[in-house]
Known about the structure:
Blueprint: H1 13-21, E1 26-30, H2 34-43, E2 47-50, H3 54-57, H4 69-81, E3 87-91, H5 101-115, E4 119-121, H6 129-137, E5 142-147, H7 153-156, H8 166-182, E6 186-190, H9 194-203, E7 208-211, E8 219-222, H10 224-227, H11 245-261
Parallel strand pairs: 1-2, 1-8, 2-3, 3-4, 4-5, 5-6, 6-7, 7-8
Helix pairs in contact: 2-4, 4-5, 5-6
Amino acid sequence: MSVHKSEVKIVTTHQLHSMKQRGEKISMLTAYDFSMATLLDAAGTDVLLVGDSASNVMAGHDTTLPITLDQMIYHASSVVRGTKRAFVVVDLPFGSYQGNSSEALRSAIRIMKESGAHGVKLEGGVEIKDSITRILSAGVPVMGHLGLTPQSIYKFGTYSVRAKEEAEAEKLLEDARVLQELGCFAIVLEKIPSSLAKRVAEELQIPIIGIGAGPHVDGQVLVIHDLLGITKEFKPRFLRRYAELHETITTAVSSYIRDVKSQDFPSPNEAY
Length: 272
C-alpha cells in the first residue's frame, strides 16, 4: 500500500494554509519531551502541539489548569530541540493570557524567546480578541481553540460534546469567523458535532484541526499518550488507539524485574 508523503521540508503557517488549499490533510500530535518529539518529527507529523494536557499525562493532575507558564516553556524547549521539520505550537496555560492583553503578550513572547517554538495556541473566541490582537501585533503566530475548551472545565462542568444547541453552534461559528479576521493561522475544534465542524471548515479559509470533530475538517490532532495506548482509562468515541504500549511496557518492565531478582541480568556477556 502506497503512503502519501508531503514534499514539505519545513512546515510553516504558509505551508499549512497551502495544504488546506490543495486538500492535503494536516497531521497534528501532542509532544512534551525531546525523545518523543524526535520520533514524531521523523515520522512526518506536520504539527507538534506542546499541549497543556501535559498537566494530565505528564504531571498527573485531573485538569489542565495547574500547569504553569514556566513548566510549559520547559516542555516546549525540549520538544523544539527534538524537531527538525514540524511546526511547533505551544498552549498558553490557564491564567497567562485571560487577565489582559499585556499579560498575554508577555506570556507569548516568553514562550517564543525561551523555547524557540513557532507559535502559540489560545482557548476562546471573541472574549479574548484583545489578547490575540496584541500577540499577533508582535509577529507571533496564533492558533485558536473552540468547542470544548478544557481550561474552562469548571464553567462547563462536563467534558461532553459542545455546541449541540443552535445558539451555542452559532456562537462558535461567529467566534471562528472572528478568529480568522483577527489573523489566526488555524483553529482547533474540540468535541463538537461533525456537521458543525464541516460548516466551519468549508466557510473559513484557514486550516481547521479537529479532535472529536469528525472527518470533514482539514486535519486531526490527538494526545500522543492516548494514540499509543499508554493511558488506559481515557476512552472517548473519537480516540483510535494505534498501539497498546501500556501492556508492552508493563510486560517489558516485569521481565526486567524478574531477571534482576533471579540474577539472570546482567549475564556474563553484559558485564565488563
